[in-house]
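Box 3.1 A note on notation
Throughout this textbook, protein chains are presented in two layers. The first layer is the amino acid sequence; the second is a token string describing backbone geometry. Keep the layers aligned when reading.
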Amino acid sequence: MSAAAVSASPNPIEAALALRASGRLQDALNALSAVSEDTSELYTLRGEIQFELGRFHEAAGSYFTAVASDPENILAQFNLGVCMQQLSRWDDAALAFQRVLDIDPDRDDARLGLGACLLQLNRPEESLAVFDACWSEGVRLRAEFGKAVALQFLRRFDEAETAYRRMLQNGQQPEDVLTNLVALSAENHDWDSVQHYASSLLEISPHSVPAMQGLAAVALERGEFGTAVQHCGRIVELAPECMEALHNLRFATGQVMAALQKRVSAQPAAKVRKSRTSPESH
């Protein structure tokens, strides 16, 4: 659509929708500024475009204005919750999702969002109950993952592992599931399982830092310091901000060097003993 055609359009909302559909998001926002009447629907549309532009603070402001003028605007209320999640404002996000459920208790997508927020707020008992209440087929599978995480937070490790393993069998979120299984097994000091799950994770995600951290932990626990140096070095390369990996790398390197020095210093003594006991010395 040409700029002339847009400017000639009698309806700025229609113009904004056309511009948005063609990918001209900033122009779509500019077109909305020509709307003289402020309505909840207008602010909802503005919030959607701002969200697509990645301007989450502005989008949250638009959605907040939309629900302030029309508390029954369930779309704006839900999108407000999503914005607050993007901003890591978990309390506000949980409140927005709860308000969606107050309006429409069948909104399982809001229930899923609420459960995720409660996990972030370290309220696993409540999140478990929320995930348990999810019923729709489209949401239920994702809710299973949330339930497993809540069980893990509650240190109900056997139940959490069973849930994770069931998801692996169904092909659900294998990278996320294996990452959590590595952490769960490490908490249980089950190093064989850490080795198994971390190796499986590396097969599907060769640059997975959690997988390398798991393998490094196993190597350190077993005193396999050369292997630990390899894994910790790779972690430092991929995640240089990881101070734990840097500390472990220095420690493991020190252990390797100490063992090497001990081996070298023992060699001359062995040669002396051999020369003293050889037949040629008599």
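The chain is about 80% helix and 0% strand. The domain at 173-260 is CATH 1.25.40.10 (Serine Threonine Protein Phosphatase 5, Tetratricopeptide repeat).
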